[in-house]
């Protein structure tokens, strides 16, 4: 009801769309889009915090979260390469 | 004093010399205004383009400027299997990726056009794949497509859908599909946001009028949205096709031209021949060979940009 | 005038030098060749980017010593070795840029007339340090004059897992082709497969495909630079790889240079061709799994085929001096200084075995004896043939390598995309386009 009132106040034809319908036609596809578009960023972020052995071993460690989160990769990037120079 | 009606550009009295008349002429003024832009265009567009075309007609290498050999490079390329494969790859890549980008981009634009919570935030975040440097997303995809460590393969195996890890980039057709998928992922936000801007110019009253007349959502889309969106679509898809056709970074980072040249586009082949192989003239010729296709794409959209009477309710 | 005097002394010392070299020691007392740098000389050096940090540190320390000894300022820039190639070509083209370029492979042969003659220096170093390896002589000379000074060879060997090879029924990878194939089949059966790059991996893919081609007696061109790639020997090599490929790990068709490192270190690939980088990373890792791999791995040379002798392909590092330099003597003196054992020996040690020596004397360098697993890399220099074998080095050989013609040919035959005969013919046509100019 509150959604409908809000829709009425906004104007336009939104009030004609029921909430369940809106979920199926709008929210669900949008969620899938967002997941696909943003997953690689999440994956890269998680990968950058993983240690090498976690990276290669999917049997012992779940790939979705760095169990032994480490800053070693960042340390290497910032202090052992020319990266700061390029920045 | 009575105001005389004067013509817009009155001829100057003969008392003025020709120089003063020149200075006052609209044509000269127009020319002067155009000059900075023309100089910029000349320096940064025409000169490199001309040099590229010239290089394509010589046998220049990376160490010495070559001699003029006319269409020698093009004749040699015509006999080259790898070159024709790259043309085929480029056309396939462009057509497939652009079509999917258009479909998904339009759908996403329609979704974003709806009223949803955190509308502004969602619209901004959706743009991320496009604005992030291509090399970055290419490396991300390289890791995702790895034949031993792909997270996609791992998940599908865990879900029991496949038994063997997918060799994304190791088989020619799989590599083509994977590369197209990566390109689509990167390009959809651009198409979506641009089309969204176009969608927002369509007056809601048109939709309301259509609904009052009993139009279904599909009919609203077909008879209201699409016609009014056509000019925007033409512009966006032209850019999208141009960028896709000349794509270099994605292919180079992911496959360097791929399993047995299966993902070599004309741009990457041109680089391999010119810089890695040292044959500048031949690489330039390959790059110049892209121009007819690009011109065709531009002309196609030029005619699409023309306003048609039916967009404004008249008959074509 | 002074040059003449030095040459005379050379001839006198030649007899003594031969005796000394035969004994494997530095040639005994003979006039040292030294070049007097010009007054106010300044040098710009462009070299390939180091693979290990120790390399550049040792290099810069030696450079500083040179500046202190001679007063010549030296500026050293590093670029990835693939980028040095076009930069060198551009510098040669426009006649300005670095004075000394340390690049790779055929680079100096693309513009030999633009390079300073280094014959005197090369002869001196060759006589003092036991002589140049044949392949280094081929790379450094053109028409019997030295145009470049080989700095070393970025050697690669077969990297293999000892336990996995044993489980497949071999003590170590056999040195004949038939045995090697059996080994790879055994490895695949035990689910510990081998893997060699067939994608556009500039180093790894060219490295093993050229070895395979040459080992079977095939070659791209003959001594007269005529393309002979389409031959029964080539087809034999392609047939061999066609039998080898099903035993590889997945994905090799698209493997780039780091791919085999990744797979080997993850334990998925048990045999591959690579430099010492895999071993070095595993040995120095804090991860116990990688330490295990380091203990369980070793190196050996590529097998020898019907060709009759070793026929490996590796990256040659070469220093050359541009003719447009204002300080030719300073450049020569700098190179001489860096190649002398006081500087070169520590540099080899700091490079941790990434660089194999170009001169026979440096076979004794402790980097090869400090770790027995590094020893095969010290022997690589004897086993290498030049790019574009058996023809001449130049634009065509560089272009054929840069265009991955041999690699693509093997990839086509291995994957079955083309029959071996067709693959050889297509590659031959592609190569002809480069050589017929």
Key features of this structure:
A: 87 residues, mainly alpha, 5 helices, B: 316 residues, MetI-like fold, 2 domains, 15 helices, flat
Reported for the largest beta sheet of chain B, the result is:
none
| Domain count of chain A | 2
What string, H for helix and E for strand, traces the elements of chain A in order? HHHHH
How many β strands of chain B by DSSP?
A: 0
Return the structural class of chain A: mainly alpha
3D shape of chain B: flat
Strand content of chain A: under 5%
- Note poorly predicted spans of chain B: none
The residue fraction in helices of chain A comes out at: 55-70%
Mean pLDDT of chain A: 77
Q: Would you tell me the overall average pLDDT of chain B?
A: 85
Structural class of chain B: mainly alpha
The fraction of residues assigned to DSSP E strands of chain B is under 5%
CATH level-two architecture of the largest domain in chain B = Orthogonal Bundle
Fourth CATH level, the homologous superfamily of the largest domain in chain B: MetI-like
How do you describe this structure in short?
The complex is a heterotrimer of chains A (87), B (316) and C (437). Chain B has 316 residues and is mainly α. Chain B contains 15 helices and no strands.
Task: Characterise the protein shown here.
The complex is a heterotrimer of chains A (87), B (316) and C (437). Chain A has 87 residues and is mainly α. Helices cover 66% and strands 0% of the residues of chain A. Chain A is elongated and about 60 Å long. The two termini of chain B are 52 Å apart. The longest helix of chain B has 33 residues, at 81-113. The radius of gyration of chain B is 26 Å and the shape is flat. Chain B is 68% helix and 0% strand. Chain C has 2 domains: 7-147 and 315-355, D-Maltodextrin-Binding Protein, domain 2 (3-Layer(aba) Sandwich); 157-313 and 386-435, D-Maltodextrin-Binding Protein, domain 2 (3-Layer(aba) Sandwich), CATH 3.40.190. Chain C has helices spanning 2-22, 53-70, 81-94, 107-110, 119-128, 134-140, 162-167, 177-189, 204-215, 232-244, 257-265, 277-283, 288-295, 328-339, 341-350, 367-370, 375-378, 395-402, 405-415, 420-435; strands at residues 42-48, 73-79, 100-104, 141-142, 145-146, 149-154, 157-161, 271-274, 297-300, 315-321. Chain C contains 20 helices and 10 strands. In chain C, the strands form 3 sheets. Chain C has a 5-stranded mixed beta sheet, sandwiched between helices. Chain C has a 3-stranded antiparallel beta sheet with strand order 8-7-9. In chain C, strands 4-5 form a two-stranded antiparallel ribbon. Helices cover 47% and strands 11% of the residues of chain C. In chain C, strand 1 (42-48), helix 2 and strand 2 (73-79) form a beta-alpha-beta unit. The model of chain C is unreliable at 1-25 (pLDDT under 50). Chains in contact: A-B, A-C, B-C. Chains B and C meet through helix 13 of B and helix 3, helix 18, helix 19 and helix 20 of C.
